[in-house]
Design a protein that fits this description.
Blueprint: H1 4-14, H2 19-33, H3 43-54, H4 63-72, H5 84-95, H6 103-115, H7 125-135, H8 142-155, H9 161-176, H10 185-204
Helix pairs in contact: 1-2, 1-4, 3-7, 4-6, 5-6, 6-7, 9-10
Length: 210
């Protein structure tokens, strides 16, 4: 399993960030992703995405940029908000102020974070790999997918079924109506077929919801 703390530290050192600031930034990330209300969007999710991405790092144009986006893409996550991605991107931009990066590189990183809002096709191939890794859980085995569904339901536990189920059904139908859930050929070949099976099976549980 990857040591996220070490990966983050090495990544920020390459961005010209001093050790003290790096430790502070990592503590912040741990606090956000370890909140007790996070059953899925937590450090395990970061590990999962990292493992998917590191396997294809040779396909990415800017691996360091993708890693920074990974750590910040879900740092703000509130089930009552519809602007988590924007808030996460804003925090990421603030934290990158002391990076030794060009403005264009910072903005590219921000665009990766924002791309996870709709998971639509991007002209930036790195963003497509990034969002595909974020969705790869959908194409895992039925048992893993079932646990994912249970964890998402726990995160939305403040909502009763008559609110949660129609909302979840809408999300599932949006994915199933896409021509391709996974935008890159690599992830498409690995996960597309099983993702559609998993999503269709979950959707069938909500067919009586109006």
């Amino acid at each position: 399993m990857p040591n996220l703390s070490e990966i983050f530290t090495k990544t920020l050192s390459l961005c010209g960030v001093d050790e003290y600031t790096t430790k502070s930034r990592w503590t912040e990330i741990e606090i956000y992703y370890s909140h007790p209300d996070r059953y899925y969007h937590n450090l395990d999710h970061l590990e999962h995405c990292y493992n998917e991405l590191v396997a294809i790092k040779n396909k990415l144009e800017d691996w360091e940029c993708i890693k920074v986006a990974l750590f910040y893409h879900d740092i703000v996550y509130k089930v009552t908000s519809n602007k988590n991605e924007e808030d996460s991107a804003n925090l990421a931009r603030l934290r990158m102020k002391n990076f030794s990066w060009s403005k264009a590189r910072v903005e590219r990183c921000i665009s990766h974070v924002l791309s996870t809002k709709w998971h639509s096709y991007s002209d930036d191939s790195d963003s497509n790999y990034f969002t595909d890794s974020d969705l790869s859980i959908l194409g895992n085995s039925p048992s893993i997918y079932s646990r994912y569904c249970a964890d998402i339901r726990k995160e939305y536990s403040i909502f009763p079924d008559f609110i949660y189920k129609p909302g979840r059904r809408k999300v599932i139908k949006r994915f199933l109506e896409m021509d391709r859930i996974f935008k890159t050929q690599y992830f498409y070949e690995q996960f597309e077929a099983q993702a559609r099976i998993n999503l269709s099976e979950e959707l069938s549980q909500y067919t009586q919801v109006t």
